[in-house]
Amino acid sequence: FRSRTSHAAIMARSLQIPAIVGCNDITKKVQNGRRVIVDGFEGSAIIEPSTNDVKQYQKIADKFMNVRQQWKKMINQPSVTADGQEYKISANIGSSVDISSAIENGADGVGLFRTEFLYMKSDHLPTEEEQLNAYRRAVEQLNGKRLVVRTLDIGGDKPLQFMPLPKEMNPFLGYRAIRIALDRPEMFRTQLRALLRASEFGKINIMFPMITTLEELQAAKKIYYEEQQKLAVDHPGIGRDVHLGIMIEVPLAALNAERLAAEVDFFSIGTNDLIQYCFAADRGNDSVSYLYQPLNPTFLKLIKHIIDAGHTHDTTVAMCGEMAGDRYALPLLIGMGLDVYSMSASSILRTRSMMKQLDSKKCQELYQQAVTTCDSMTGVKKLVQDWLVTN
Ligand code: PEP
Ligand code: MG
Prior knowledge:
46% of the residues lie in helices and 13% in strands. The chain has 17 helices and 10 strands. The protein has helices at residues 7-14, 26-29, 51-72, 99-104, 116-120, 128-141, 178-183, 185-198, 214-232, 251-255, 257-261, 271-278, 297-312, 329-336, 345-355, 360-373, 377-390, and strands at residues 36-39, 44-47, 88-93, 109-114, 146-150, 204-208, 243-248, 266-269, 316-319, 340-344. Strands 3-4-5-6-7-8-9-10 form an 8-stranded parallel barrel, surrounded by 5 helices. The protein has a two-stranded antiparallel sheet with strand order 1-2. Strand 9, helix 14 (329-336) and strand 10 form a beta-alpha-beta unit. Bound molecules: phosphoenolpyruvate and magnesium ion. The site of magnesium ion has 4 residues, from helix 12.
């Protein structure tokens, strides 16, 4: 694993496998069959631990298991703060198989279905029927809760077996996500049709990844409405309950959020990409991982700008990047007025139980203090850590 927001790391988190990133040459130092302690809390590994180390870590693991038991009590509870403000905490999933974990962890819905895995594991372009089955299965299991599906987000670090993409110097700045969808509209249309048809079996929201300009969004919406109208001939009213949204993960879209908000029902802030593009630091490159700074005060102001811009048009603002499940970011995000928190299923109950301890007014003050008195991510982190001790 090379960084905390690489897809391998995200998958490990959702499978609840303790993982650490950036261990570089550890495989040269550890031989097969050796014992290693992986400390996913602190981000360290102990090769050939002593009996004492093992005892100490056994205690830490037991304590964590107990805390987890406590969190389980939150499964059927609403996601509310101490002062009664209600939010939604949803799950990020990579396939319909992950839905069971979302449900077991009491998710208020699915905030991000990364559909590219459906395509990545297939040796052919998934047909409309195959996709319909996958989306239908997912939304039916959710039993009335909402499923937010992101249209195909390939390219970057996500290749396809059946459609080799050209090698690029800067794949994250290249041919990916909505750019491919608009360039190969047939593939996009097939997915939209499958999603619209699946929306007859439950509540489905559709969001477009990597929107940069207003024209891209309008082009994507035009294609969507064309498919909706074609399907409506045989299925009157199809898509009437589908909300349309976009990922905000490109800085230009963040800056233009107010205009974009007028066009959509919801935003979902993709901090994994938004951070890599704002800080100009490849999310998969361990040498620049110090620039993964969700708590940087300038970045926090940008997030606040997106939230406020969304709210001027009654656009719901969600976050589905890893920042949404970050314990230090939570009070700041509540303070900024974020509506929906979407994260690995394994983080939901911890977040809900933490939310219950927080007062939204005090969180607003904390956010103000962070952006007016801190100059760095380290400063904000320290401020939040100290604040959490007394609040
Ligand atoms: C993001 O960019 O924050 C995001 C949620 O999408 P992904 O990690 O799949 O790029
Ligand atoms: Mg992204």
